[in-house]
Design brief:
Blueprint lengths: L15 H21 L14 H28 L2 H33 L7 H22 L3 H16 L1 H11 L15 H45 L6
Length: about 240
């Protein structure tokens, strides 16, 4: 089988590499601004500045799982693999961000609450969300049939998203030691700009990482299709 008879390998969009560079530089600048240009908080001191990572990571994790939900619905509707790739890519990044949120929350909680972990409603529902999407990724890893993997993953992605509003509203629905949702409008004005900048910084990195993983998923699928074609034809694999 000649290379012209096989599907061409997907090419990264031209904007991808420069966007990644800009996103990384913007992230570094936003973090530096948050740490050096804002004063220590009166009660927590510099520990407060963990907010510039913890809060944006949580926000963007919610966005990631919203993408998973939307892409999963579109896959079940359209049955096109690009939606499955998009859902899986966003799920991977969202899971990492949720893990980061939990880790930073524990680091903040130890000197503030005196414990690394407590079964607070916000913490518990966030941990459940993390486990749901770990299960989503495990399902994808251990299901070999592509169509079945995509269908099952879409179902888990849709059902798992139901926990996102529960996590968000947990601090208002139940008695909790966790503070209410932080936004630029609820924090001190001295910290609002740094919080906004870091939220955009995390958003840009999220876009870059999801685009990178999406490209990799398409590449893996193309190579897998080539292996299948070569196996059926009894010839070599063209890469």
């Amino acid at each position: 089988m000649s290379s012209t008879e096989t599907a061409a390998l997907p090419v990264r969009p031209r904007w991808h590499r420069p966007f990644g560079t800009v996103a990384l530089l913007f992230f570094i600048a936003a973090q530096a601004f948050g740490y050096f240009a804002t004063a220590p908080e009166r009660d927590m001191g510099n520990l407060q500045k963990i907010m510039y990572v913890h809060v944006p990571a949580a926000w963007i994790a919610f966005i990631a799982f919203t993408v998973v939900f939307g892409a999963s619905v579109l896959y079940l509707w359209k049955r096109h693999e690009k939606y499955d790739h998009a859902a899986a890519s966003a799920a991977e990044v969202g899971t990492v961000l949720t893990g980061l949120t939990l880790a930073l929350g524990s680091i903040w909680g130890r000197p503030t609450w005196g414990v690394w972990w407590t079964w607070d409603p916000r913490l518990t529902t966030t941990a459940i969300l993390f486990l749901i999407y770990l299960s989503y990724l495990s399902l994808r890893a251990f299901t070999e049939d592509e169509e079945r993997r995509a269908r099952w993953s879409a179902a888990v992605g849709i059902l798992g998203f139901l926990n996102v509003p529960i996590v968000y509203m947990s601090v208002r629905w139940w008695r909790t030691i966790h503070q209410v949702q932080s936004t630029p409008g609820t924090v001190d004005s001295d910290y609002a700009l740094a919080l906004r900048l870091n939220a955009f910084a995390f958003l840009f990195l999220f876009i870059y990482f999801v685009a990178s993983r999406y490209h990799l998923a398409r590449l893996e699928r193309t190579l897998e299709a080539r292996r299948e074609e070569a196996a059926l034809a009894g010839g070599p694999i063209h890469v």
